[in-house]
Amino acid sequence: GAGVSQTPSNKVTEKGKYVELRCDPISGHTALYWYRQSLGQGPEFLIYFQGTGAADDSGLPNDRFFAVRPEGSVSTLKIQRTERGDSAVYLCASSFGSGEQFFGPGTRLTVL
Amino acid sequence: KNEVEQSPQNLTAQEGEFITINCSYSVGISALHWLQQHPGGGIVSLFMLSSGKKKHGRLIATINIQEKHSSLHITASHPRDSAVYICAASTLESGNTPLVFGKGTRLSVIA
Asked: Maximum distance among all alpha carbons in chain A?
């Protein structure tokens, strides 16, 4: 079956604009994670969904960042009033029970 | 101090060499993950282990819970092994949990 997919693969935007990043997890996976990876660094946790609800959003850097998963499958990460420091690769992963996480290819966000 | 530390940060090896990448962690874990990331960003899970040793092909992962240390070994290394290898910890008792990542080890294997 299909793996985790993310769209768009690349997004270039201007400072101050609003962006949405989408993640389609593996079908049936109840847990969905958003991570952010800056150049030369390991990924950092942003938010984790179990079903439709955010089980842990402690990694969101500030209130410009928000994520939803209304039907327990697809998730959208929303960033308001983007800043240059938001430039990074945004990774999505999903899992079911075992703890092993399956990663999407990421969305590379560049804020000019 | 990061909760998950890896060494070395960068590693260059000749084809055929035996490679070891180390990971130490300071938090209680339920499992330790080794991940591979190729240029372009895609991350692939190599191992998830909570005790002992696992082997898959030329890759071997070990963990010492008492010492809070894990190693990833690659035998008979090949240029296609060139990638970033990332150690990550699951910190809750069971089930799904966000991962805490090390910064990664960039491996280059030269023919």
From this structure: 40
CB contact under 8 A, A99 and B48: yes
CB atoms within 10 A of CB A10: 10
Query: Pick from A42, A22, A48, A17: which is nearest to A105 by CA?
Result: A22
Q: What is the pLDDT along chain B (111 residues), one digit of tens a residue?
A: 568 999 999 999 999 999 999 999 987 888 899 999 988 768 999 999 989 999 999 999 999 999 999 999 999 999 999 999 999 998 765 556 889 999 999 999 999
Determine, for residues A43 and B101 on separate chains, whether the beta-carbon distance falls below 8 Å: yes
Chain A, nearest residue to B10 by Cα:
A40
What whole-number distance in Å separates Cα of residue A109 and Cα of residue B69? 34
- Token pair listed for B99: 């991962």
